[in-house]
Amino acid sequence: MKNKKRTTLLRYWTTRYLVTLIIGLILLGAGSLWWIQKTTLENRLKLMEYLAVETANRVIQPNGMMEVDPFFNRMLEERARVLQLEKEPELFITDLNGEEIFSRPRHMGLGRKGPQNPNKMDIPSEVIEKNDTVQKLEVEGVGVVYAVKSPIMEGENQLGWVVLLQSSDELSDVNQEYRLLIILLGGLGLLGWLVIYLLSKKILKPIQEVAFAATQIKEGNYDLNLNTESNEQEIYELVSSFEEMTNRLIQMEKLRAELLAGVTHDLKTPVTSISGLVQAVRDGVVTGDERQEFLDITLKEIERLQAMIADLLDFNSLSAGAFTIRPETCNMNELVEDIVCQWAVTQSKAVHPKVLLPEDVIYRNTDPLRLHQIMINLLNNSYQALDVDGMITVVLTEDYIDIRDTGSGIPDEEQSYVFERFFRGEKKKLKVRGLGLGLPFSKMLAKALKADLILKESNSNGSTFSIIWNNKEG
């Protein structure tokens, strides 16, 4: 399989963000251009209305006649500058029938035809006929044209019309605003890309550290120093979880080494003992009662070996799911009491555990054999932790079973590892031989019974393990 070419996370996301940003700015720019053209057109049409009204008032002379004063052209030029138009609008003064009296045409070729103006066209008749002050027209050879008209009034009498004409393209032309918009959008795009680049680089730094740490772990180097100081919750959880995972791997590596040494020792010791004892019996070194004692010791060592092998086989079977659960409705009061009594009888030294049962009988659908295995393991652990005057108490409730002891407790630094396979505490290593599979095995059995096994508390006054049922049906 060919290796797929990959890109860095920084380049991947900044490139896609830049493409998305450009598309967004293009859409924003298109919308802004449309809005600028629309508002500019509306504003200029309103200014043309004011200009038409002003012109209509200015052409009426005191004698009631329509005349244009000498400063009229200058006034129109000043108003064109106010409109910010490169070309002045076409201005016409007509009588009531639309006949041209005065005109100031510039470039569109509108106006009265005549020998001196053969290329001119008449003002469209609908401009005069319609009552609308502002009209949009389609003029052949010119395109879309807006016409603005205002009546020329003398008192109550109307004498004519002032008509202003300007093409739609000229009214919507705002080159200065376009340039400003382009500069603003370009600046926003550059700023947005720079911000996302810097932020992505900051976020990627701890991820890159974790990726580098993972490479180091793959090569077998667990001596890492990750910076867990982060303000982002997700980044903090990622780095902290990875650091915790590294600590777990270090612990597992330590457990693996200890397991090899421990299993080798625990297997070698009884095998050596068995070999020496059998050889002594075979060679006749011991006879009589001493010979029988040697054989009894041999059987005990063999039983110890069988127990260790059985632990490994049971744990592997449970891990692989090759076991069965046979649930049945059990009287939990009787079952728990019987398990504790049977266990107490089998101990080499007298032990008197206390069993606290509820007044009402509790019935639960569970596998009594598997529950027996869990409780026996917990009782054995509690017994091993007891001092001379220690006490074991078993408490049954509707929701859980507690096994408490008054032993020395589990050190704080070891409590998070008690359910790790092959883990054995420092104190227990010196007192009891084993593989460290009891609690992990019991926890897996509890899960199979739809329950959970937890270390509820542990301190210098003792420890409490709890079998907690996940639901009422068990």
Number of strands: 12
What is the top-level CATH class of the largest domain? Alpha Beta
User: At the fourth CATH level, what is the homologous superfamily of the largest domain?
Assistant: PAS domain
Task: Report the CATH architecture of the largest domain.
Answer: 2-Layer Sandwich
**Number of structural domains:** 3
Tell me the fraction of residues in β-strands, as a range.
15-25%
| DSSP helix fraction | 40-55%
The CATH topology of the largest domain is given as Beta-Lactamase
SS content category = alpha+beta
Poorly predicted regions are 111-119
Search tags:
Beta-Lactamase; five-stranded mixed β-sheet; 474 residues; Helix Hairpins; alpha+beta
Structure description:
There is one protein chain. This protein has 474 residues and is an alpha+beta fold. The protein folds into three domains: 9-177, 2-Layer Sandwich (Beta-Lactamase), CATH 3.30.450.20; 222-322, Helix Hairpins; 324-469, Heat Shock Protein 90, CATH 3.30.565. The protein is built from twelve helices and twelve strands. The chain has helices at 9-58, 72-83, 125-129, 168-172, 175-218, 233-282, 288-320, 332-346, 368-385, 412-415, 426-431, 438-448; strands at 90-95, 100-104, 134-139, 143-154, 157-167, 328-331, 354-356, 363-366, 392-396, 400-405, 451-459, 462-469. The strands form three sheets. The protein has a five-stranded antiparallel β-sheet. It has a five-stranded mixed β-sheet with strand order 7-9-10-12-11, covered by helices on one side. A hairpin with a 4-residue loop joins strand 1 and strand 2. The two termini are 49 Å apart. Residues 111-119 have low confidence and may be disordered.
